[in-house]
From TrEMBL:
It comes from the Bacteria. The keyword Lyase does not apply. Keywords: Membrane, Transmembrane, Transmembrane helix. Signal peptide: none annotated. This is ABC-2 type transport system permease protein. The chain crosses the membrane at residues 35-54, 84-104, 125-147, 159-181, 188-206, 232-254.
Amino acid sequence: MTVRSRATRPTGDTRPHRPIRTATRMSVKELLRRWPSMLFMIFMPGAYFLVSYVTSDAVTTLPAEVRTADGRAVLQVLDRDFKALYLAVLGISVTGSFAAMTVVRPGMAALRRLRLVGYRAAHLLTARLHVLLVITVTSTAVFMALFAPLVTLRSVPLAAASLLLVGLTGVALGTFVGLIVPREFEASMILVAAAGVQMALGRSGADAERYLPYWPGIEALKSAAFAPAPDVAAMLAQGAAYVVALSALSYLIWNHRTRLWRR
């Protein structure tokens, strides 16, 4: 009687074994070859945030409209705390979006080989998103380590969730832009513009800020940072919907592009 191991594959079965794990491992190896760029991408925005905060005026206040459990309220907050909030958003959004744009663009030869031996588009994109999730969580932890001791937060867990949402939005946006814009320079300029315009409009109090992708995460972060009774559920849900929508569009583009590789 012959006993066949559970790991034994039937003869003629060409399906990849543990495809997502294999593709993820290859993506990690690819990023490790460029580890200086990855570290720079995570810690450079953090250093800029820290220097900007320390050199800002420590006594000036300004009115800030935030969401509370009782509705919207206008509170007086320190100008440098309000600025720090947008600097944190700028740093995490740029880190997430640039990492995503970088991860979905290079290494196409390796991805093409995996696709040709039977890996599905979903396997390859999911593997890349796993790597991006690790980068986003790491950058969020770095900014929370800087942000929490400097700014008096009403709710640290909700602030962390809001910053993570900003990072995930950046990943979704960077993935989408990286797939539809053929040249890396133009894609980079679009991502920088999206984050920079969001910060400029938010700092000036312009109502147009609500039409930009990072607005739900920023509103949730304002509430978590400054409101006595934070109300972030609606904003977190709206931001998550943005992430899902951008990710779905990215998958459709990715699936079409990788399907052409098999022809």
